[in-house]
Amino acid sequence: MVPTSRFEGIAAFVETAEAGSFTAAAERLGLTRSAVGKSIARLEARLGARLFHRTTRSLSLTDEGVRFRESCLRALAELDGAEASLAERSGEPAGRLRIEIPVLFGRQWILPLLLELSARHPRLELDIGFSNRVADLTAEGIDLGVRIGALDDASGLVARRLGTQTTQLCAAPAYLERAGRPQKIEDLAGHACIFERRRGGQSGWRLTDREGATRVVAVSSRLALDRSDAVADAVISGHGIGCLPGWLVGQALRAGTLETVLPDISSDALPIHALWPAQRPLPLKLRVVVDALVGRFLPVAPWDEAG
What we know:
This protein is an alpha/beta fold. The chain contains 9 helices and 15 strands. It is elongated.
């Protein structure tokens, strides 16, 4: 018989490697920080190897820790697959599914769906991360990702289109009554524009005019914010014109809280995809989530639905 303490040590190690600290791992596991630290210390003693570099301010994996983590993830995936395959015989999705989704879009439009699925399928375990980075799904052991933008690094992945992110110029009616409504792109120069500042990005809006010509329109603004939800808050409050994704402002536009500016001027349209590492057959737990995403976002995006 394999001692259960060995599995406990591995669980503590994997969670600590994922979370980056004993404290965060303890919160995930429902243990004390001391219990997690002692469990990993016993594991290191049993293996005869140091798995973490420890300082008073940081925790990082050693080379041995990196290799051991990869082996543990493979073994845990095998165990999870064994459990899920038995559950699938009854048609019930089961097992752990690690998902990574964009921060704002994910919280507003994907998390509610995932919570519904979690309640509907009690044997389905969801580990949900929020990030706007381009993750290496295969290398990081992520089962499913949602990405907004071009798929330049999708080798070895399967992609399912969920929709399109369109971006719209908009402002509060009170601002437009006060400052006037722009009639052409050039009129934006005389308005208060609220810019979303992106690291390493362009300091302007990429717009396409009536003739189909695309250009980056320089934006002069007293407000430059690095979150699109903060830009939306400022726009709704009447501080100026913003260029925002439809999934963020669609409801406000329908409610009349915001008004479209230059409706025949378009901005970049970016594809939205669900992505997962190629595998056959597709596990039921993954298929259930992908099917739910497709059903929620197609054929009409929920932010474009009336009501």
